[in-house]
């Protein structure tokens, strides 16, 4: 949401649910604060005129998503979530929002869709945005070398899945799935 000339692009502004009369989202992925008189202080004794302005979002360091602070809150609101809540119906009550083109900063309404966690991960893998197989899987207990050792040990000895599992400090089910190729298929 940099200073971009969007005139003639059919920008549509709508109130963000929960922030009616204070903030609006646009179909082009921008958020603005509306002109209003805001009550300042704890007892409502001070008023401040707030001018309408398009907000300049920050980018979250670890996630890479754009965010804005609404109502001066320290908790930041992800821009894609505000856009989706404003413009995209969610009849199945799906909790996540997917960036269809894989670009986390493209918050145009046509680039967003509601999804489940599973749908979001599958999309990220299909787009090549993440690799969650093998050692890249956050909960991986073994690595490619151990997989090769387990498979070789099974072929070359009379050891059972349980004995191999005990040798490597994993559960029997994991050893069986690795040895049979059900998991770690990418390792030869």
TrEMBL record:
Record keywords: Endonuclease, Hydrolase, Nuclease
Lineage top rank: taxon: Bacteria
A Gene Ontology molecular function term of the record: hydrolase activity, acting on ester bonds
Keyword set includes Hydrolase: yes
Domain HNH nuclease: residue ranges: 79-122
Residues covered by the NUMOD4 domain: 11-70
Organism listed in the record: Spirosoma foliorum
Species lineage: Bacteria, Pseudomonadati, Bacteroidota, Cytophagia, Cytophagales
Name of protein: HNH endonuclease
